[in-house]
Amino acid sequence: MEIKKSELKVLFTEEQIQTRIAELADELNDLYGNDEVIAICVLKGAVMFAVDLVKNLKMPLKMEFIRLSSYGTGTVSTGKVHAVDISLPDLNDKNVLIIEDIIDTGHTAKFLLDFINNNFKTKSTKFCSLLDKKISRVSDIEPDYYGFDIDDKFVVGYGLDYEGYYRNLRYIGYKPNV
Ligand code: IMP
Ligand code: MG
Question: Is 104 a catalytic residue?
Fold first, then answer.
C-alpha cells in the first residue's frame, strides 16, 4: 500500500485531538494530585501527543524519552520490537507514566512494561496511549488511559507515520478503502 497526502481522509481533527488531550490531562491531574511523575515518551510516534499532554499536567514532572521501533514494512506490524534507545533513570519508587501514540498488536507496550517491571520497582506504572486499535491486539495488554478507539485502519499524522512521513500533520488521517 502506498499513501498519498491527497488521498487522506481526516479521522480526528486537531480540535478533537486537543479536546480529548485536555480531558485525559484532567483525569491524570486527578489521579496524581501533587505527586511527582516521570513521563516517558516513546519516540518517535508519541512525540506530538506527549508534548501536548504534559503541557496540561500540573504535578511536578520529569520527561524521559526512549526510542523503540517495531520492525515492519509499510502498514504491517511484525511483532518484533527493537530498543533503539531505552536508557532511563532510576525508576524505583517513582510514578511512571508511559506515553504512546497507539497500541496496535500490543507487542511494543508489552515489551516496555516487561522492561520496566524487570528493572525497577516503581511506585506506580500507568500506560497512556492516544489511540487504541483493540481489534489488532495479540498481547494481553490494555492501556490505563487512551484517547480514542479506532478500528483496523492504518492511520497517520500527529506523530504517526507511514514510511517516516506525515508525522507533522496536525490531524490524524487514514486512507479509505484499503
Ligand atoms: P504494536 O503493534 O502495538 O507493537 O505497535 C507498534 C507500533 O506500530 C506503534 O507504536 C506505532 O508506531 C506503529 N503503528 C501501529 N499501528 C499504526 C498505524 O495505524 N499507523 C502508524 N503507526 C502504527
Ligand atoms: Mg510508536
Answer: yes
